Amino acid sequence: MPELPEVEALVHDLRGRLVGRAISRIDLTAFSALKTFDPPLHALHGTLVDEVTRHGKFLDIDASGVHLVIHLARAGWIRWREEVPALPARPNTKNPLAARIVIDDPDRDTQPGLDITEAGTKKGLAIYVVRDPADVPGVARLGPDPLAEAFTIEALRTILEAEGRKQIKGVMRMQSIIAGIGNAYSDEILHAARMSPFKPANSLDETELQTLYDAIRGTLGEAVQRSSGLAASELKGEKKSNLAVHGRTGQKCPVCGDVVREVSFADSSLQYCATCQTGGKPLADRRMSRLLK
């Protein structure tokens, strides 16, 4: 799933490609992905792209005051194409294409564009056409951005104290609490902080609070820097190659050499290093425990 660093890199890539150019048309091929009806999708036809920004994990293309807001969900992505077919894209259940943004370029014989795709059968990609990004419920509910100046250590302290005994892994993933951090980077942040994902949010002492704050800012900031300047096609590979524990179950921890372990849930999993994060004690994997009974 694209998280804050990848969406930030997409913003920089698309800003350079889109700002100052006109949207010729948008072909919608996955009708369930469009979550709004007013303004209509065709309100974007013929508009000029003024800016591309980010709200948490939401991508926002501002075109002449109309906002195309995209949430890529678990398996969505955006691909730039130097040339798109002249004929409008049509619905096809076997094709991952959800929508196509065709760009008007009077200096070329062909038209470039963006393909918004979603792999797999479980569909979560969402497209909104709004006059104000705050009209998107998910954007309106977002917590503070962890890379914003307003996200101070005191802001983090207030958040954790308010969440009480909730597990810190879940708190960091909740978009209404902190925007932009998902499953992968919460694993990476907690590994960098040498902290158990099951640690209660309000149990951190001053040293642990500072360590976690530094890990949040450092892990995300470094990922953004590594991704800066990369094209959209390179971002997934960059992310995967720099993860220390997430998605690396059974491999060696790059810090201590212990094996990376996993805890599985109904629709997700977390990865951690017992030596670095839990004093050498493996965490209970309830799903595996049930299977072994």
UniProtKB/TrEMBL annotation:
Source domain of life: Bacteria
InterPro entries: FPG_cat, FPG_N, H2TH_FPG, Ribosomal_uS13-like_H2TH, Znf_DNA_glyclase/AP_lyase, Znf_FPG/IleRS
Keyword field: DNA damage, DNA repair, DNA-binding, Glycosidase, Hydrolase, Lyase, Metal-binding, Multifunctional enzyme, Zinc, Zinc-finger
Cofactor(s) listed: Zn(2+)
GO molecular function: 8-oxo-7,8-dihydroguanine DNA N-glycosylase activity; damaged DNA binding; DNA-(apurinic or apyrimidinic site) endonuclease activity; lyase activity; zinc ion binding
Formamidopyrimidine-DNA glycosylase catalytic domain residues: 2-120
SMART domains linked to this entry: Fapy_DNA_glyco (SM00898), H2TH (SM01232)
Annotated ranges, domain FPG-type: 244-278
Reaction(s) the record says it catalyses: Hydrolysis of DNA containing ring-opened 7-methylguanine residues, releasing 2,6-diamino-4-hydroxy-5-(N-methyl)formamidopyrimidine
GO biological process, one term: base-excision repair
Family from the record: Belongs to the FPG family.
Annotated PANTHER family: FORMAMIDOPYRIMIDINE-DNA GLYCOSYLASE
Name this polypeptide is given: Formamidopyrimidine-DNA glycosylase
Organism field: Nocardioides alpinus
